[in-house]
Amino acid sequence: MADHYAVLGVERDATPEQIKKAYRRLARELHPDVNPGAEASEKFKEVTHAYDVLSDPQARQQYDLGGDLGGAFDGFGDIFSQFFGAGPRAAGPRSRRERGQDALLRVEVDLQDVVFGTSRELEVDTAVLCETCQGSCCAPGTDLQTCDICSGTGQIQRTVRSLLGNVMTSTPCGTCRGFGTTIPNPCPTCSGQGRVRARRKMKVDVPAGVDTGLRLQLPGQGEAGPAGGANGDLYLEIKVRHHDVFSRSGDDLLATLEVQMTDAALGTTANIKGLDGDVPVEIKPGTQSADVITVKGRGVTHLRGTGRGDLKIGVHVITPTKLDANEQNLLRQFAGNRKQPAPTLSHFQQGLFQKLRDRFTGV
Predict the structure, then answer these.
(1) What CA–CA distance (Å, rounded) separates 338 from 201?
(2) If we measure between CA atoms, which residue out of 65, 50, 45, 41 comes closest to residue 7?
(3) How much helix, strand and coil, in percent to the nearest 5, is found in the chain?
(4) Tell me, what DSSP letter sits at residue 147?
(5) Do residues 152 and 180 make contact, with C-beta atoms less than 8 angstroms apart?
(6) Fewest beta carbons within 10 Å, which of 66, 246, 333, 348?
(7) Per-residue pLDDT tens for 13-63?
């Protein structure tokens, strides 16, 4: 085997920078595009292999201890794969095309939007296909070229000595990085990547029934892949904004209605403003605080289903605090006619909001 240090023309204690500088100088002199001769081509391969070993700290240390031991161990793997079906095996050149990354975008919606769903126009900062080269990575009018070092295989074969004798190993080609092809003239727009960063506008549909924390998957709406690879997916994470009047329990909407004492006693009707229009509500005579009035089908539309939840209205009876003399006399007359017993102690009653919570949730 040739001495890798001698091939590159450096001392055995050369620094990584000195090794890289020597390799670049020789590569410029011996590259087939500059020096097409067969002898120069073989010399270039030898220089590339030497640099592959000495530029890797672990491989260089093993080489200094007695040769390309790392390559020998790779050879063991090749032998094992031939006899036992295990170990690394060269799979040919790898594709430049790769699937793009998935992206996550957080979207805030109002509670009103959740009832029937909504559409949003979003701006996404992402990777898109390069319009100049259309993902080819090459400047217009040019194309990829087969790597003349590995002959398009993406692998460099070399023979190394081991305890079992000479064995053949394969390593990714350092010139084409295992792709099997090179880009002599990269696209000036994307610098040979096949994609560029851009701000893209897109319209998305947010279905009815979504809730905070839910993630919606939009296949193929994520980042474009390198070299024209498939797009990744876009995930929308939903956050529903707080509403001052209505809250949500599953697909039911919850609200509290303040009712005057006389209306609660005599009964009345009211129209309240819902998220999707006016809602008629009947307050029956004798309604008590913490009673729940249920209006069917005026809640949130079921996610990916049909029908809607209910609107549940908790009643809060308001006792008047400022009465004039006439109103006080009327109430005294009413109390006298009712012959109500004097106030007495009774078992503990839970508070209004506790009772409302239990009745809203069906406890």
Answers:
(1) 70
(2) 50
(3) 30, 30, 45
(4) -
(5) yes
(6) 348
(7) 899 999 989 988 888 787 665 666 777 778 888 888 888 888 888 888 878
pTM across the whole model: 0.61
Q: Measure the CA–CA gap between 56 and 53, rounded to whole angstroms.
A: 6
Mean pLDDT of the chain: 83
Identity at 130, one-letter amino acid code: C
The DSSP secondary structure of 260-327, one letter per residue, reads EHHHHHH-EEEEEEETTEEEEEEE-TT--TT-EEEETT-SPBPTTSSSB--EEEEEEEEPP----HHH
pLDDT at 47: 84
Token pair belonging to 362 = 């069906």
Contacts (Cβ under 8 Å, ≥6 apart) of 36: none
The CA-based dihedral angle spanning residues 102, 106, 109, 115, taken in that order and rounded to the nearest 10 degrees: 40
What domains appear along the chain, each with residue ranges and CATH number?
1-67 (1.10.287.110), 103-139+185-240 (2.60.260.20), 247-361 (2.60.260.20)
Q: What is the pLDDT of residue 341?
A: 66
Question: Is the pLDDT at 142 greater than 90, yes or no?
Answer: yes
Enumerate the β-bridge partners of residue 104.
235
